[in-house]
């Protein structure tokens, strides 16, 4: 029987990722709280409520869970509406609470990574037009300066904005995030504002903390053409990928926005990522519908035989992760995988999803791609935006009514990976035996290495 290990480099960061609104609870001063009070915005009328109750102190027990399972890093976000509940009015007690949480992470051996914007805006920002307001970069920068000045002795790695592409599409085209916009024509403005705000934050952080490492969390989604005789599907897949994946990383590389007819220069955005943050979940199929060509802007589907998550939201596509890593490597920066995971309350697919994605990650590392860390989404089940509590991404299950946590097998699996800094054949045999031969082929290179020993 094969005994082999896929080793990761020294000082590799292993952790989980969370975001303020999804875990803190009682975030009453932001646009998501307001949105949740409206009818039909969230599946089954679910609300974030107490979420994982971190603001009241349960962050500590969850950080214990992370540290006891050998994680050495944690990615979390700061809630703008807590720090600045009304314009230029700072809540020093909230900032102090964040210091306590972040120091709590450090004390437990978790290197903190902080996201400054993860989908939510203070209600007062939303009332002033949110990301359509031409002053948004100034407002965001003022908040970022306050936070960085207060936390820079603890935090060295900053993520300015989480998934600007998902945010822009969901809030202004699909209408599923507040403010519920459904107008493609607003997209150029939102894209411009997001890039300007990121650039302003990047420079502000470096002024305050020259040694900081600053980037974005880019959501990369795979688009795979449905095979056909005509080249249309391939063209659409490429078009979708350019439109969804490339706009933001390109703009922060060369300072240029290219989107449909839009060609714009934002010189201050040039060279504004010190690392490439990559969020990857899945790869979808694309094909042209001749009866409805506008459908190329809509989400595609998955193949009939795809390995699907319980609500059909995610297909287990490790090959798409490989494409994502290669794509990320193309930007020439160190890479952090800042989110990767699957909703799976029964933990049936998660072990094989995790194993097969980690094997691709290792593969990339061995191509000398500068991958520095991996953050699983997520530690404990949390509030999943417009899908409410219907999807469970946690290594630990949560009953939001009782706040009771229950460990899923994947938590033990991930813990052993973190402890060994490696993915071993033994682990895969224990947790995902169904893909053992795929990851450690009996007659593949692993066996040859074993024989030499
Ligand atoms: C977001 C997370 C979210 C996850 C799973 C990502 O796009 O950054 O906030 O929970 O997807 O839905």
What do you see in this structure?
- The protein is α/β, with parallel strands linked by helices.
- The protein has a single domain, classed as Alpha-Beta Barrel (TIM Barrel).
- 40% of the residues lie in helices and 18% in strands.
- The chain contains 16 helices and 14 strands.
- The strands form 4 sheets. The protein has an 8-stranded parallel β-barrel, surrounded by 6 helices. A two-stranded antiparallel ribbon has the order 1-14.
- α3 runs parallel beside α5, α7 packs parallel to α9 and α11 packs parallel to α12.
- The longest helix is centred in the middle third of the chain and has 23 residues.
- The protein is globular.
- The mean pLDDT is 95.
- Bound molecules: beta-D-glucopyranose.
- The site of beta-D-glucopyranose has 11 residues, from loops.
What string, H for helix and E for strand, traces the elements in order? EEHHHEHHEHHEHHEHEEEHEHEEEHEHHH
Bound small molecules, by name, code or SMILES, are: beta-D-glucopyranose
- Binned, the helix content reads 25-40%
Q: What's the N-to-C terminus distance?
A: 14 Å
User: Which band does the percent of strand residues land in?
Assistant: 15-25%
The rough form would be described as globular
Top CATH class: Alpha Beta
Regions with pLDDT < 50 over 5+ consecutive residues? none
